């Protein structure tokens, strides 16, 4: 109990000094992936696959930055992005999915989860990252999936969510 009080007092002092800001909502991690990229690589060759990956990177980096996100890492046909606000991540994800075909890309699929992360050397780590990646793996072509916890954090009248049911994700409880 005394640790909690001491921490709260220290945070309040740092906040008054402008050195600390409370986070009202945890950040969101977004994973985007091209659907059927391996098959495309086999059918059309590595050069076409590389061009598609570069087109995806350009589309997603532009979209995420316009919505306050930042790219964290690229993994060929997939990327991980950080958003300070879960709602901004959701809006960006929907825009990415809708824009991919018009950019000459195959459909994308996206998974988002909000929660605490550990930042280190420009990368982010933690269970939030793992859950977002697993949610993305469950998303079908043209889909954006998220967790119930993330839905509770999003307050944006432009967004509507549809429950698709609980899903078992490797290493975590049903979401």
Summed up, what is this model?
The protein has 175 residues and is an alpha+beta fold. The protein contains 6 helices and 7 strands, in the order H-E-H-H-E-E-H-E-E-E-H-E-H.
Write up this protein:
The protein is α+β, with helices and mostly antiparallel strands and 175 residues long. The protein has a single domain (25-153), classed as Alpha-Beta Plaits (2-Layer Sandwich), CATH 3.30.70. 43% of the residues lie in helices and 20% in strands. The chain is built from 6 helices and 7 strands, in the order H-E-H-H-E-E-H-E-E-E-H-E-H. Helix 3 (46-66) packs antiparallel against helix 4. It starts with a helix and ends in a 22-residue tail after the last helix.
Measured as a percent range, the helix fraction is: 40-55%
Query: What sequence of helices (H) and strands (E) makes up the elements?
Result: HEHHEEHEEEHEH
CATH C-level category: Alpha Beta
Low-pLDDT residue intervals, each spanning 5 or more residues:
none
Round the mean pLDDT to the nearest integer and report it: 87
Q: Based on the coordinates given, report the CATH architecture.
A: 2-Layer Sandwich
Full CATH superfamily name? Nucleotide cyclase, GGDEF domain
Largest sheet descriptor:
5 strands, mixed
For the secondary structure, the number of strands is 7
In percent terms, what proportion of residues is strand? 15-25%
Rounded radius of gyration (Å): 18 Å
| Category from helices, strands and their pairing | alpha+beta
Side-by-side strand order of the widest sheet: 2-3-1-4-7
